[in-house]
């Protein structure tokens, strides 16, 4: 097992290198540093000196991949690719265009993101599993058909409508919760509750449908028939046998998300004014801050790969039939 | 009438897509094993009802994809000509659909007005004919213009709704009647004991549904001639028109993205599964790398780069419409790049299974070439997966467009799209009194498209997935 984990971690390195290469190609090859400087400085008639200064300040004056004027290893290290992309492997994110330290920002903004994403995730799974087990237990009935219709309807509404509607109704009309904002400490809950509930509601449509299919697949299997033949009551069959076995496919779909919870949700955080990583990313996109975007891409990829690894480990733990060489 | 046809790049791709769909349809009509699942879809009433709604959306999107320039008219109504005698065209290209809804498109007010209103939504200083100034809601320029006394508004609306709805329902009855007669003649003539249960016309509920749809269409059509059905937006444009124009954007994103990614996904997927070895390793490496980049960030970076490129090369994108069209196409491409990995992975798994089948091994041992085996044995057997993925993916792409436009990396802000409407509506809900109709229009149109797409996709999946096939 340990062997497997080490091998997978090593395999992640070329993948991350590829991610860096893709972002680098996107940012620095489509457009030359001169064009970037011109866009950032934003004035039509920029003096060459100002552009040169901007490039020097932001380390864009170096060649892209290969520096002939240096010697030895510096031929590689004194390039934009190394200075901007390779240092990410050491999690040195550098500074944003406003001059803030990105790693400091990430550490600070991670917690508000988690405060929204973690409860949404946990509550969502709980609600989805409960509902879908209940619906699976009354399968084929009028209630089941109705529930499926509602799931499709919930799925078909864009998430932004839930947010806008919820903010308007609960925040503006009923004045139960503040419309947006965030405060650490004991008053966090009143800022967090609406986004969490909306996130859970939005997830119900797809989640319940998917889990119901998984549970129905399990219910059709032989061991369930055996359990019924033994005379076990339907509830025991459902909540003990089916639930346990149905959890395995659910696990694979769910564990991969867990590390990415740190990244927060772009739209949710932006609408509710949560100072998390999601709104940090949106702000960076809107102000075209390439350093921040690049760091978030790298961070997101790392977390996704960690998620895949966790999935495999959980899978072999939950289903002993699966063994990795 | 002299028209200068001037198709945009996305238009051409839409035509290509229609052509591909026709080829696929005529291909699957030739084989019973492909006809059977479609017949199952046709027997599903919900699927047929959503197909009806979908085809309405598609029709509008297609009409909206035929762009041309009208000649510039002189005062006497004749097209103006330059020295060489060539007709001078307007610089702005409009679509066939714009011609159909001409009387909605050209009725621009000054600013916000509520749905079906006759007056503006905000008070202004109005100078009365006798020179006095009052502060009141000014009269709209077009909305309910024909009304003398605005107390008649409600009666006029009901009157128009009933007349329009009634007319369309009558048309509907006529069409359905013709179909029934044709059906009766053809079946009683040729084979008396043909199966009586024919999917499309079996359900009375389906007929009622299509009549209801027709009624709504008639009401909308007749009322929007003289009123602003969904009000007007900040600059006085008719919201109903904007929402209708948003249909093309949504459908283009939903379909072209698929068109762009399909060749890659199919080729890479089956090659990885069939050849194994280093090909498999390479392709797996590519798709793991791509899928590990968060989708929104990949799209955001790509669109930002496109912005820089457009800023530095303004000569290549001369008009706003060309600019926004390229941005739309680029968005489709990059959405395709971030979404083909899922299909690729499924196809790889399926091909790994298929290549161990007896018939593949038999053709291999008979010396059939790799390419021929892939084309003859593998591709037809994974087509149902491709089809299911495509129809299931459509609605999520439409939803994704709205989110991306909100983030600011979606379609061009000048382009009519539901995402841009929602984006504007977030500010409008914060003002007092609130402006809700932009949001409502985007909601209604998006919900209609996504819901019917979801329901149709479910039926297609049920019919084509061998694990779920019931008979």
If helices are DSSP runs of H or I spanning 4 or more residues, what is the number of helices of chain A?
14
The CA-CA distance between the termini of chain B, in Å, is 56 Å
Per the principal axes of the C-alpha atoms, what is the gross shape of chain A? globular
Please provide the ordered H/E string of secondary-structure elements of chain B: EHHHEEHHEEHHHHHHHHHHH
Can you count the beta strands of chain A? 0
Q: Please name the fourth-level CATH homologous superfamily of one domain in chain B.
A: MetI-like
Proportion of residues in helical segments of chain A: over 70%
Low-confidence stretches of chain B: 189-201
Weakly predicted, low-confidence segments of chain A: none
Strand percentage of chain A lies at: under 5%
Helix percent of chain B reads 55-70%
Average pLDDT for all residues of chain B: 83
CATH class of one domain in chain B: Mainly Alpha
What class, by secondary structure content of chain B?
mainly alpha
Shape of chain B: globular
Rg estimate of chain B, integer Å: 26 Å
Strand content of chain B: under 5%
The number of helical segments of chain B is 16
| SSE-based structural type of chain A | mainly alpha
N- and C-termini, Cα separation of chain A: 8 Å
Observed structural traits:
heterodimer, A: 325 residues, mainly alpha, 71% helix, B: mainly alpha, MetI-like fold, 3-stranded antiparallel sheet, 16 helices
